[in-house]
């Protein structure tokens, strides 16, 4: 493997000043994605669909093709792109509000159909760009602008945090579902491994794959970056456990061989 692709600055990532807040996990996730695209040699065949939200700026950072669908419609756009260009690597990049609220129907049905693209689901447990409102993944007791006293499941309209990865595992069309985090170097390395496995599965045409990534949002959590990284470790991971949650890739491969 080319050492430059492993150790140097990713060719697929523009060298520009970030618009993300200090301590935000999006930049780390962008780095992981572009490192993998370079390592797999797929820069000319990579297409990312990024939604409204903090990831609205993805085209400023990714030096490969991108499409920005309306809020919540990213899986629908990714479905169309992958069907028209089946030999391309198609990545659906979504936040928790975009995927688990506004785009729930698109996400569930794409997974149920077994659409052959890979979703990177960034879960920071809050609406980031639009003002810190409670998201579907906001923790019980966690404060938000629309839940100033903390999320209370007993109050009308609040409910419980949605575990998206576990939800998608129940669908037969999903083949690989994992959850990682980027709050420290060790978790980021593991997350990269999950995403690589998901991308390779897509290239083999094995079905719907998704990696959920727990990410910090210091600004809307009201914390500094260090506090946010620690809060994610202490509060989010117990609710959203890390690891491979569903992996049927080997079963699918064995079935095809038979």
Features:
11 helices, 258 residues, Rossmann fold, 7-stranded mixed beta sheet, 7 strands
Topology readout:
Elements: H1 3-7, H2 26-40, E1 46-49, H3 58-61, E2 65-67, H4 74-84, E3 89-95, H5 96-102, H6 104-113, E4 118-123, H7 164-169, E5 174-181, H8 185-203, E6 208-214, H9 218-221, H10 225-239, E7 243-247, H11 249-257
Parallel strand pairs: 1-2, 1-3, 3-4, 4-6, 5-6
Antiparallel strand pairs: 5-7
Task: Tell me briefly what this model is.
It contains eleven helices and seven strands. It is of the alpha/beta class and 258 residues long. It is globular and about 50 Å long.
What does this structure look like?
- Strand 5, helix 8 (185-203) and strand 6 form a beta-alpha-beta unit.
- The protein has 258 residues and is α/β, with parallel strands linked by helices.
- The radius of gyration is 17 Å and the shape is globular.
- The chain has a single domain (3-257), classed as Rossmann fold (3-Layer(aba) Sandwich), CATH 3.40.50.
- It contains 11 helices and 7 strands.
- Strands 2-1-3-4-6-5-7 form a 7-stranded mixed β-sheet, with helices on both faces.
């Amino acid at each position: 493997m080319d050492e430059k692709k492993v150790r140097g600055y990713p060719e697929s990532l523009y060298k520009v000043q970030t618009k993300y807040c200090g301590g935000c996990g999006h930049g780390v996730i962008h780095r992981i994605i572009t490192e993998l695209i370079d390592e797999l040699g797929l820069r000319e065949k990579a297409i990312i669909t990024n939604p409204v939200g903090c990831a609205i700026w993805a085209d400023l950072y990714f030096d490969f093709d991108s499409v920005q669908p309306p809020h919540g419609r990213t899986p629908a756009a990714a479905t169309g792109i992958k069907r028209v260009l089946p030999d391309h690597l198609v990545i659906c990049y979504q936040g928790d509000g975009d995927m688990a609220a506004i785009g729930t129907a698109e996400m569930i049905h794409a997974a149920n159909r077994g659409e052959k693209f890979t979703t990177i689901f960034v879960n920071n447990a809050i609406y980031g760009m639009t003002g810190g409102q409670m998201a579907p993944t906001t923790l019980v007791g966690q404060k938000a602008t629309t839940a100033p006293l903390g999320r209370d499941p007993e109050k009308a309209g609040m409910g419980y945090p949605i575990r998206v990865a576990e939800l998608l595992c129940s669908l037969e069309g999903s083949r690989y579902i994992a959850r990682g985090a980027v709050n420290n170097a060790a978790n980021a390395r593991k997350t990269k491994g999950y995403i690589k496995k998901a991308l390779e599965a897509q290239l083999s045409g094995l079905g719907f794959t998704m990696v959920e990534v727990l990410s910090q949002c210091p600004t809307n959590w009201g914390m500094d970056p260090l506090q946010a990284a620690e809060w994610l470790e202490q509060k989010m991971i117990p609710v959203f456990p890390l690891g491979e949650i569903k992996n049927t890739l080997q079963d699918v491969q064995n079935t095809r061989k038979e």
